[in-house]
């Protein structure tokens, strides 16, 4: 009896000590339906799982065929990021910020001899660098999540902006467009291209480049103060019937082509989507992972490679914080967001998380 009493006391003291240690990590009730220890537990678990994902992802870079271990790491991220309160949790904030900082370090140090390096940033943001140009798509700091501690710091956003020659903005939603980011491009004399309804009424509006939304038509866009020129098609896309969503096809001076689809989701647009590949060679398609009928989209564009974006956007409720596992399923065949469980697509798919990059070289993939 005495022994049990003694053990109980010792255990009690240990528990108190651990509780005190943990209290120094976090005292806030991030999820108010849980008590403090439960919140601390979820913070610690997020840290452990994200550390493990980082270890795997740093060992196995994005590649095709995909190393199996990468899939496990990305599914770990789905698990952590589908906690409703994920963007409030310090390890998640740290994961995003350190990955973007590392990407900025890399971009500053990377010269391309051939092909293109494609960095995935937050949400649907991408930076594509070839030998002669660097293109930014939908670069944002994560303010769409609405949680201050989660935003990418201004100095790291500025470092990304400094590396780009141009910014393409797909549409006005704040998980794709940030006026602060656009203004920094304008301040540096770099073009910002967007649909005509973005930042209307704001002082920045007159500085924005509005190209014609016209299927298959190539338009010229000078960059680097006119030293280089991009060819651009602005496909007249939509998110639903009413939101203008520019789907850019950008062709670099090396004749490499990249298409970022913003939040493309509208049945009526298959009229042009079905014909893209018949009009232009597409090297890399960067669709929103939840775009309408990705199998039909992949047939229409017929790209050499697909790299999806928009997974785990923290501004969305968890039912639309789209997971990596769904992108795997949609490639095999799924009726989620259009399509059917009987028909998938064969085009290689590279899935990446924030800050990762992939080197694309034409001819390396099956159909180009
Ligand atoms: Zn949108
Ligand atoms: Zn979006």
Q: Could you characterize what this model shows?
A:
This protein is an alpha/beta fold and 368 residues long. It is 34% helix and 16% strand. The chain contains 10 helices and 13 strands. The strands form 2 sheets. A 7-stranded mixed beta sheet has the order 6-7-8-9-10-11-12, with no helix packed on it. The longest helix has 24 residues, at 2-25. It is globular and about 60 Å long. Residues 5-26 have low confidence and may be disordered. It binds zinc ion (ZN) (2 copies). One zinc ion binds next to loops.
**What is the count of structural domains?**
1
Ranges where pLDDT stays below 50 over 5 or more residues in a row are 5-26
Strand order of the largest sheet: 6-7-8-9-10-11-12
The total beta strand count reads 13
Which percent range fits the helix content? Answer: 25-40%
**Cα radius of gyration in angstroms:** 22 Å
Do you know the CATH architecture? Answer: 4-Layer Sandwich
C-alpha geometry: globular
Instruction: Name the CATH homologous superfamily.
Output: Ribonuclease Z/Hydroxyacylglutathione hydrolase-like
Task: Quote the beta fraction.
Answer: 15-25%
Any chance you could write out the topology, listing elements then pairs?
Blueprint: H1 2-25, H2 36-59, H3 68-81, H4 90-109, E1 116-120, E2 126-129, E3 134-137, H5 154-163, E4 166-168, H6 179-187, E5 192-193, E6 219-223, E7 228-239, E8 243-251, E9 257-260, H7 270-273, H8 276-279, E10 284-286, H9 294-301, E11 305-307, H10 324-332, E12 349-350, E13 357-360
Parallel strand pairs: 3-4, 4-5, 9-10, 10-11, 11-12
Antiparallel strand pairs: 1-2, 1-13, 2-3, 6-7, 7-8, 8-9
Helix pairs in contact: 2-3, 2-4, 4-5
């Amino acid at each position: 009896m005495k022994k049990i009493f003694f053990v109980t006391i010792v255990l009690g003291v240990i528990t108190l000590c651990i509780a005190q240690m943990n209290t120094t990590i976090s005292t806030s009730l991030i999820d108010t339906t849980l008590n403090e220890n439960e919140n601390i537990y979820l913070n610690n678990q997020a840290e452990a799982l994200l550390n493990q994902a980082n270890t795997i992802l740093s060992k196995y870079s994005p590649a095709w065929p995909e190393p199996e271990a990468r899939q496990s790491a990305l599914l770990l991220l789905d698990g952590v990021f589908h906690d409703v309160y994920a963007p409030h949790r310090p390890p998640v904030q740290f994961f995003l910020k350190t990955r973007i900082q590392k990407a900025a370090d890399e971009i500053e140090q990377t010269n391309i001899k051939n092909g293109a390096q494609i960095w995935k940033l937050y949400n649907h943001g991408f930076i594509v660098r070839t030998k002669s140009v660097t293109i930014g798509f939908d670069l944002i700091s994560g303010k769409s999540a609405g949680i201050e501690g989660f935003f990418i710091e201004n100095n790291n956003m500025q470092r990304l902006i400094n590396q780009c020659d141009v910014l393409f903005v797909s549409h006005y939603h704040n998980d794709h467009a940030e006026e602060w980011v656009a203004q920094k491009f304008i301040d540096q004399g770099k073009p910002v291209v967007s649909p005509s309804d973005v930042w209307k009424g704001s002082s920045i509006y007159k500085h924005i480049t509005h190209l014609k939304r016209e299927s298959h038509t190539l338009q010229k866009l000078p960059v680097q103060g006119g030293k280089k020129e991009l060819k651009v098609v602005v496909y007249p896309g939509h998110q639903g019937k009413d939101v203008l969503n520019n789907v850019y096809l950008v062709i670099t001076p090396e004749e490499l082509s990249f298409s970022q689809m913003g939040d493309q989701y509208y049945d009526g647009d298959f009229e042009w989507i079905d014909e893209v590949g018949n009009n232009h060679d597409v090297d890399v398609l960067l669709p929103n992972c939840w775009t309408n009928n990705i199998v039909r989209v992949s047939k229409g564009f017929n790209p050499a490679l697909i790299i999806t974006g928009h997974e785990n956007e923290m501004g969305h409720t968890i039912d639309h914080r789209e997971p990596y596992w769904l992108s795997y399923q949609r490639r095999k065949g799924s009726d989620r967001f259009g399509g059917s469980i009987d028909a998938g697509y064969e085009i290689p798919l590279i899935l990446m998380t924030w800050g990762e990059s992939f080197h694309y070289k034409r001819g390396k993939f099956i159909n180009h």
